[in-house]
Design brief:
Blueprint (H helix, E strand, L loop, with lengths): L3 H11 L7 E4 L14 E4 L6 H15 L13 H11 L6 H8 L1 H10 L7 E4 L2 H11 L3 E4 L10 E3 L2 H9 L9 E5 L4 E10 L2 E11 L2 H6 L5 E5 L9 H14 L4 E9 L5 E7 L7 H9 L3 H11 L10 E7 L1 E2 L4 E5 L1 H8 L3 E5 L15 E7 L2 H14 L1 E4 L1
Helix pairs in contact: 1-11, 2-3, 3-4, 4-5, 6-7, 12-13
Amino acid sequence: MLSDNALRMVEAAASLPEVKLSVVTQEPAERLGYLQGQVGHWRVSDILNVGQLVWATRELGARFGPVTRLFGAYEQLQVPLATAREALGIPGLPVQAARNFRDKARMKTLLRANGIPCARHRLAPSVDDAVAFVELSGFPAVVKPPAGAGAQQTYRVDNLDQLRRALSTQPPSAERPVLLEEFVRGEEHSLETISIDGRAVWHSLTHYYPTPLHVLENPWIQWCLVLPREVDDDRYSDIRSAAQRTLEVLGMTTGLSHMEWFRRADGSVAISEVAARPPGAQITTLVSRATDTDFLQAWARLMIFNQFEVPERKYAAGAAFLRGQGEGRVRDIQGWDVVQRDLRDLITDAKLPEVGSAASTSYEGEGFVIVRHPDTAVVEQAVAQIVSRMRIELA
């Protein structure tokens, strides 16, 4: 589906000079807004169906000229896109590499086989297999789908009863196995990398406060992301090295990758998982604000022209995510006037819900506030103030 985020990416690609853009969607052309009529469009009934992708691309090529690039940002679309590109002879991330990124069990098997630190795991086709894993690795453990995204359908279990309950709604089978992982304790982060022809040319990273899984388990928590200015510090050299090796093992060619990783209490790192697509949670906006560039446009240029101009990092940036307290619709927004008064000079973006609107189903919550400053510590203090002072009440 053409979400608001996807539409912004379409706009970024359409804004590039010398680009003749066409879009394949499940929605009518009217969803393209002001771009309707300015870009080609083909509607399909199932965007994840390879045959329909190939058909749509050929039809668009017949009408507007040869298709030289075929790409998208949706996680679940990466393998179908790679398969369609192969069928059409269009360059891009190979099918095997796309599967390495998409299948998290396959990914972790490859990483461990190459000595890259990551959580112990097992792909369990039955409840008995799942139980056998936790008896070996211990509790707590993490239960997730092998092809998940954004911590969706991911659960922490602390005992056998919780494990069996987590598996009861969709019991694992040979056709639909479940991925079991050891629960890694530590601080969670992300690391984003731009690669060209398999060579890393740029990176960024963020700190999560608290971890995404903790946020999903506690819908009332207002959480933060901070993108520090000092991404080249020696304290990150170990994860930069591990990330580069990870991308090589998984087969990254040209694109933007999003890696989630942990810093354990003993200082060691452990890679959680990697996606061969742009990150969510407003990270692309944070990079744009930290570098005074349009990072989505830079990603589109990378995917179309194989070019990326490394931007100067001028600021640290942070996002405070506002999540409704209670259930129902938005009844009141508290604290915004105080935040504006005290942090006005730092705020670059804000999205607040309207009173009466339905509660969000996204882990981002009902809204967010983005800030930036040359000093990382100032940004960290600002986002902490925002989530402590603002409150979205639902009723």
